[in-house]
Amino acid sequence: MQKPTIENRLTKIFHYMALVLFFTLFINGMFGTGKEQIIGTPSEFVLWQQDSFFLNAVKVLAAIVVLFIVGKAYDLFLYKIHPNLLLAAACVFVGAFSIWWVTAAPNYPVADQFTICDYAMAFNHDNYEGIQEISYLTVYPQQLGIVTLLRILFSWFGDMNYRAFQYFSALLVPVLVLSGCMIVRHLTNKNHKAEFYYLLFALCCAPMYLYIPYVYGDLPSTAVGLLATWLLLSCLDKFSIPKAIGLGVAAGLMVQLRKNTLILVIALVIVALVKLLGKFKWQVLVTGCSVIAGVLLLQGALNLTYAGVRDTSLKGIPASLYLVMGTNDKDGNPGWYNAYALDSFTQNGCNPKIATEKAMVDYKARLQEFAENPGYALNFYQRKMNYQWNAPMYQARIMNFRFNGELKPLAVSIYGGPKMDVLLQGFMKIYQLFMYGSIFFLLLADRKGLKNEDKYVLLIAVFGGFIFSMLWESKPRYVMPYFLMLVPMYAVAVDYMMRRIPTAAKTFLSVVRKFISGKDKINAEN
Fold this sequence. Notes:
The chain has helices at 6-31, 53-76, 83-104, 112-124, 136-139, 144-157, 162-187, 192-203, 206-210, 218-237, 241-257, 262-278, 282-305, 319-325, 340-347, 352-372, 374-389, 409-416, 418-445, 457-471, 476-525; strands spanning 32-37, 43-50. By secondary structure, it is mostly helical. The chain has a two-stranded antiparallel ribbon. Helix 12 packs across helix 20.
């Protein structure tokens, strides 16, 4: 018997961690849903609705039947279409629809989105006060990367032309779909039916489209992140210098678009490191180093860009303040934004050291409350999990609810139609619930097929994102990128499940026949 390698052992440990996570998400989703409040009086807060376990079970069974029939349709005639042609058609469709959606739902930036646009325009006119005195950008320095991208777009297409960013996001949607499909191709060793399921799920993913007009890094960083994941897997499979360079650029760019993608960077590095621990290969070492080098070099380039105009003595809000904010329960919204981080920072003279000391006192006091009332603590974190991870619309409409033009009929229906609201939220509920359930099934039933660490790369990122979401400020929007990262694994899981249905059905019928024949035999003897 072959001795397990370090990679096998570490993979097994994570396998069980992921199994627990997806069972937890699935079973909680069977009992309730976080609803997006868009009809009537819109609100960014999640409305938790208790569901019927039985009804959700019926919906899951219905999803299995529908996807089994779709799979049979693929086996009968769709398989004749070359997989690359299907992929190209899907990319063309999502690209065209995404570009059209920018005009169909003419959303304009508000709050933080408008602020970063305003700073980008000011910088282009040599006004750098935003990084020379205490202001939004010095308090939130992580926004400097996306401000720089906006500066480039504004210099090309005109001041405050945020539509350019929206079209930029739209053009990245085909990149997201292409990258996700290629990840599935790698994970399944070119199982074209699994790729077909992925394209189906990607095309039906409503939040992906609805976040296109959002002038922020959520969608673009996810698209670039999936590109980086594909390039890493491709390098591990067959290394080349151009792919390694592309991997570094993609990794560095996604972090500049959204700093939270460092969680995906960590996942990519973990996979490379575990591979190295199993068996040293210089190609794997270079692949892992490309990720780190890309992040460091682009951050260095950003620092160099503002070296002569930036006051580096001004520091941003420490992480400890966000941890405290993540434990608040204001108005029953666990961990939601309550201005604690910003208020505490400014009240302490924007001094990170003093603010951190105060935050740790508050954090320990809150943890003491949890320790003294474990029932409440469990309820708090269960609500915090569900309000983020079982809210299938991920605030996709409420975060894009300000318009400065006429909406096309489809957009009017999506944003204001009660029937469409029920249909959309109901569909995404089944989509999300079956996603969690099928991935749990895959982890439970296909342990041997998931023996390599690279098969878990996206799940590692999602697991890290889950831990982060339970500690940090709450918002379903923050979870949306991880949801999109799960779609490739969703396709892999559904394909595996559909291949097992005929065998399971035969086994079930065999048991029923034996039971009936045994019963008949007993009756005959009597």
